Amino acid sequence: MKAKEFYAEHRRLLLGFFSVISLLAAWELLLTYLFPLNPFFFTKPSLIAEAFKEQVRGPKLWHDLAISSRAFLWGFSFAVVIGIPVGLIMGWRRRVEYTLDPFLTALYASPLVAVAPLFIIAFGVGVLGKAALVFLLSVFPFIFNAFAGVKSTDRLLIDVIRSFGGSEKDLYLKVILPSTIPYIVAGARLAVGRGLVGIIVGEFYAASEGIGFAISQAGDTYRLPDMFVGILILSVIAVVLTELMRKLELTLAPWRASEEVRS
Amino acid sequence: MTPFIQARNITLVFKSKTREPVTALSNFSLEVGRGEFVSIVGPSGCGKSTFLNILLGLLRPEAGEMRLNGTPIAGPSQERAMVFQEFGLLPWRTVRANVELGLELKGIPSAERSQRAAELIKLVGLQGFERHYPHELSGGMKQRVGLARALATEPEVLLMDEPFAALDAQTRDLMQAELLQIWGRTKKTVLFVTHSIEEAAYLSDRVIVMTARPGRTKDVLKIQLARPRDYEMRLTAEFNEIKSRIWEVLKEELTPESRI
Amino acid sequence: MKVKSLYTEHEPFILGTGFIIVLLMAWESIPLWYSLPKGMALFFTTPSKITAAFYELLLNGEIEKHFYISAIAFLAGLGLSIAVGLPAGLIIGRSSTLEALLDPYVTAFNATPRIVLLPLLILWFGIGIWSKIVIVFAGAVFPLLINTYAGVKNVNRVLVNVVRSFGANEWQLMKIVVLPNSLPYIIAGLRLAIGRAILGVVVGEFFGSSQGLGYMIASAATNYKVDVVFVGVAIFMALSVILTFAVKYVESRLASWRPETAKTF
Fold this sequence. Notes:
The complex is a heterotrimer of chains A (263), B (260) and C (265). Chain B is of the alpha/beta class and 260 residues long. Chain B is globular and about 50 Å long. Chain B has helices at residues 48-56, 95-99, 101-106, 110-123, 139-152, 169-186, 197-203, 237-251, and strands at residues 5-14, 22-32, 37-41, 63-68, 71-72, 80-83, 157-161, 189-194, 206-210, 217-222. The model of chain C is unreliable at 259-265 (pLDDT under 50). Chains in contact: A-C, B-C. The interface between A and C is large, with 71 and 68 residues.
C-alpha cells in the first residue's frame, strides 16, 4: 500500500525519470550491441559521460563558461536596467505608448538575430559584441512585460488609493509596482531564453572562446561526445534558469498557473 | 407497480490525491414514478447534484443499484437528459446547432434535426434566435436553449441541476412558470435539484429532503396543491404551511457551514 | 478645430508612425552633420542606400533566388511541425501518462535554444536544405505542441460533461468540444511557432549555407556590404510583422465568441 501511495503522489516525477533512464539505456545498448558506432556521426551515453568527466577536470570548460556567462550577464543586466523603466513609462504615459509601441512591436516581432553578423563584425568578437547581441534580444521581453504589467493594474485599486488621498508616489509603490512584478518576472523568463540564443549565435558566428564556440568547434573536429557535453550543459543551465523563473512566477502570481503560453 | 426510477442504497465516495476521501452519498435510496415531478432539497454538499450525475451516468457509485424502468443504468444514454446550472452551451455553436447536439450524436440526418430543433426552439419561446450565439443571449434565454437541447432527444427522464440558480429572481420566477407549462405538455418525468424550498414546493408533486453529508433521504413530503399551479398560489397560507413543513425537516440538517 | 479633433482621433497612429519616420530621417541625415571616423564608416549605411540596394538586388534576381530557398525551408519546417505538433498535443493532452513520460524532454527542448543543435544537425544533414528544415521544425514544433496540449488540458469540464452526457465517445468529444475549445490556444501556439520558424531559418542559414536570405546576410556582412545586410534584415522583419499580424487577426476573429482569450506573453 505504501508503495502504491508513493507512486500516486510522485507519479509525474517517477514516470519522467523512468522515461529518461530507459531512453539512455536503450540508446547505450542499441549503439553498443546492435548498430555499428560510426564515431563521425553517432555517439553513446557512456562516451559522453567520459568526455564529461574529462572536461569537468580540465580548465577549458570552466573558462568557456566564465567567458560566456560574463558576456551574457552584461547584456542581460543592461536589458533589465533599460527595459523595465522603458516599459513602465510606456504603461504609465499614454503618449509614450503611442509613440514607441509600433516601433518596438515591429522590432520585437522580428528575428533580431539577423543582425548578429553585423554586431559581431562591428563590435568585435569579444565581450562587447556578444553582450550587445544579448542586450538587443533580451531587452524586449522586459519592455513589453513591464508595459503589460502596468496596464493590467486594476483601475479600481487606483481609485481606492486616490479616494484615500494617496499621491502619485503612493500609487506607484502600493498598487502599480506590486501588480507589475509578476509580469516582469515572466518577462525575465522569456528574456533568459532569448539572451541565450544571442550568446550562442554570437559564439557560433565568430568567437574563439565560450561554450557556444566550444560546441561548434567540437562539431568541426568531429568530436561528438564533447559536443554533446556542451549541448547538455547548456541545456541544463537553460532549464534550471527557466524553471527557477517559473517557480518565482508561481509564488508571485498564482493566477498564472494555467500556462496557456509557454514560450 | 415498480417505480419508474429506482435507486437503492447508493453509496459514492470521492477520492482525492490531496485530501481525505469524501463520502458524498451513503445508502441513499429514492423512487420516482413515471411522469412525476420530484424535487430534491438538502444542505450544501449533501450530494444531491452527485446523485443526479450518477443517474445521468457520468459517475459510478461504489455500491447500490440504480434502475430506470427496471433496467440498470450503466452509463450515459439519451433516455436521460440533464439541464445544467451553468448552461453548458457550446459557445462556438448557434442556438440551433446547440439544440441539435444530442440528435447529431445519435446520427439523425440533418433535415430531420433542423425540423425537430425548430419545434423545440418554438416550444421554449426562442423563435427568431436560431442563429444567435450563446454570448448574445441573456441567462434566461441560455437556459431555455439548455432545456430545448435536453428535450430534443426525447428523453424519458429530465434531470435538472439547480437550473435557475444562476438567474435573477424575476427571470427565475418566469422560467419556473414556463417549465411547468412545458412539463404539462411533454409529460416527462422530472428530477429537480434545488436549494430553494419555495421553488421545490411550487414545482413538484413530491419533495425529497436529504440529510447533510453523507447524504441520505431524511423525509419525503407530498405536495397537495392542485395543478395547474399559478403564481398566486405562492401567496396563500396553504403554500406557506407546506414551506414551513419542509423547512422544519430541513433545518436540522443545516449547520453553520452548510447554510443555504 | 477640425484639425485638432482629427488629431486626437488618430493620435496613436500619428505618434507611432511619426516616430518611425523621424527615426528614419534622423538616421538618414547622420552623415550630414557628423563625419564618422574611417573605421566606423565601414559599418555605416543609410535608409536610402538600403532602399537602393534592395532595388538592385530585386532587379538582378538575387533576392528572388534567396527568398525562394528560405521560403521552402520555412514552409517545409513549419508544415512538419504542425503535422506533428498538433496531433501530438491533442493526444498528450488527453493522456496524463504520456504527458508525464514526455515532460522531461519537452521541458528540456523548450528551454534550450534549439540553435545549440545546429552544429550537430550540420554534421548529420550537411549544409543542404535539410538541416535548415530540421532546425525550423525543432523550433516551431514545441510552441505548437505545448499550446495545443495546454488547450486540451484546460478544456471546459462542464462542456465535456454535457457532451458526454448526450452519449458522445472519445473521438466525438475531441471533435465537438476539445478541438474548438482549444482553438485559441492552438492559434497562439501557431503565432509563436511562426516566430521561432523564422528564427530557425535565419540562424540555420547563417552557418554552413550557400543559399537563402540568411546566407545573403552573413556573406554580405563578411564583405562589409552593410546595406545588403539591412536589406536582408528588413525583409525578415517585414515577413515577421506581416505573419504575426495575420495570425493575431485570425486570433481576434476567433475570440469573438469567447469572453477570454489565450494570453500572449
